[in-house]
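Subject: for your reference before the review

Hello V.,

The reviewers asked for a structural picture of the protein, and I figured it would be easier to keep everything in one thread rather than splitting it across files. Below is the amino acid sequence we used in the manuscript, unchanged from the supplementary table.
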Amino acid sequence: MVVSASSVLGYKHNPIKILTRSHGAIVVCVCSILYLASYLPSINVRHEWESAWSDAPRRLIVFGDSWSDNGRYPIDSPQKQLLPVTEEAQGLVWTEWLCLAIKCNHHDNFARSLPSTSVTDLRGAVVDGGVLNRTLAGEHGEITTLSDLKTQVAQWLRFEKRQYTSSRRREKEKRGTIFTVWFSLWDIWYYSQLDSDDASEAIRQTIDTLFGQLDVIADSWPLGTKIILPEAMDPTFLPGWSMKRTGPAGSDHSADDQRNAVQLVKQWNAALDMRASDWHKGQIYIYNTNEWMLDQVRERQLIIGDMFDHNGLGKSGSPWESVHSGCVGDGETPSSVDVKGAAGRPRCSEPGKYLFW
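And here is what came back from the structure prediction:
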């Protein structure tokens, strides 16, 4: 079964900063809980919630990249020099907010982030490092990525075996478990540099791998697998895209990569919807994160222009003062940075007013 918020909900709604983690991404899932509840009644519908969760441990199992990594690793923790730099001002990642919303007792997070400084030649977490190597290795040599989805699922299975003798391993816990799988940003970041045919084929193979791993998860979790699967977001709106691609110091002055990335996002999300509708091993909840993020950007632009659209976007104000630059400074926008962050990084004084960290 597949459920897509985009069809039912109305939308009014790291090398350094290459892919900055969004404060807005935290809100994405929290804003969706009431809708999600009608399909996963154990989450937030009061009467069914009480019966479904009664005495049952609530568990969240997370796979993904830097958007989902909370810095707590149940197995195979990264070496110290590979840990991302974090600080309290960043707030919680979206899966931590989700865990609070469903009152989960266990949050087992297998997502991985790049270190905040470029100390290695590592690439960010993608769905399938093998596809990345086959596609790009000829030009760049052997490519090493952070744990891809295959590796993260394998780590989870090893972790599960370790839990068999633990009180955490109960049938009722299985019934009270939600999986989240959110990749795509690094996949699209890398493949957008290819010609359109090669990039499209890489995305096709990547989606094949993603659903192959969903099969592995479902086959290992037979009691009603529930999976939250956010769609891809357009990376060209992220602060790092301008810095590394289309900006003065970037590599994409003709915007070829940008046009390619936009098409790959469309391909990814269309394939996700189509494949999910044919997947019958559990329940998949798809959230249109890209539309949500674009609305945040549009709304701020409309407010600045003292306008609103036919849906009312721009009428009620925006929670963000900045939707283009990140809170953590890159030295190019001194007016936006006035506080030293973790590891001496300059950052803004009011992170909550920035859409991107």
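For the response letter, the relevant points are probably these. The chain has a mean pLDDT of 75. The first strand starts at residue 2 and ends at 4.

Happy to draft the paragraph if you're swamped.

O.
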